[in-house]
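Hey L., structure's done. Input below.
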Amino acid sequence: MILTKKPMILTKDKVEEIMALDPPNKTKFYFDEDLTGFGLYRTTTGTGTWFAEFRPVAGGSKKRMKLGRVGILKPNEAREAARKAIAHAGLGKDLAKDRSDERASVTVKTLVSNYIEEFVAVNKKASSAEFYRTIAKKHIDPSIGTNKAVTLTRVDVQRAHSKMSRVAKISANRAMKLLSAAYGWGAKNGYVPEGMNPARGVDLNKEEGRERFLSTDEMQRLGEAMIEAETVGFEVNAGDSKHSPKGQRVKMHPSVTGSIRLLMLTGMRLREVLNLRWTETDLDRGFLFLPDSKTGKKTVVLAAPAVEILKDLPRVGIYVIAGESAGLDGEKPRADLKRPWAQITKRAALPGLRIHDLRHSFASVGAWSGLGLPVIGKLLGHSDAKTTQRYAHVDVDSSRRAADAIAGQISAAIGGK
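Output:
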């Protein structure tokens, strides 16, 4: 711990100056000379936190109360909160204890919600926060949401997980991961006792690898189904369409089939394709510049067939894949491809095929062709090499062909058979 000795008043400009410094080697404290006990500290990660120090009872031990993050609380707001805490301490009231008592009474629903809004929404992608909100609403809140966070037991959680699993086994596991993370965060922020985590050690459902790789024949069937969809169209059956009478053939918009082809030819994620803007494309050089993918900023290298697909797509709005509001004010990207994908895969006799399997197929073709896992990982935009290892079993074939070729030449040279 490092304490600053130079007197200072923690004004807005002074705080900005402090936060602009390189992160300290040890947690560094800055005290305000105008209000005794008020200050901020920076950790080795550069994070700044406001605090107030006071003695609840004259002669008692000093307490330090965290007020909030620098940047979230403005200096004047933090100063007022500190003044209030210090003033109450002088009257024999301990706001830190009151806050602790208040937090200890929160429900599991509140704990999880606070974790999502105060940590995930601030530090992770918006899509991650939305996914966690959905998991909490569908699984955690209905089963154990009303329980007090500090009284929840592992037995309660295990029973809740079993109940969730009857509906969705994978989502039940995700709910446990979310709950465990919320308790870990809650322990650090005073909501539950240090070390308390009833979600830790819960028996989860076994998850089988769900990767599916399309064969050449399956790719051909998928391609033929898309050609039929965009040329002569599919015959409408009962329940297929709200607006077309049964028996009529309906063609699919080029954006729909174009998006599927783009997924197959690039290995991109669905959301990356649907959110792609024309301003992020460079068709002359064959690049896509994604400002925010799952792994952050990303450049996609386009093969010639993918460039041709993009050139053939109609430009009716700001998004490459036109949605319902294409060309209108407040245009939004297309939400999904569920209905057309279901129709195409049914026509291609590929039941159970997921859109994400197109990404796996792109990678498997690369591995089978002997490109090597590092190259495939770069094309897919993997931030961790371990993620690409799932295709190692496919890469074995290319390694065997390479070994056969090398050994064959050596064998011929030494007179082997």
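The two ends are 72 Å apart (CA to CA). DSSP finds 16 helices and ten strands in the chain.

-- N.
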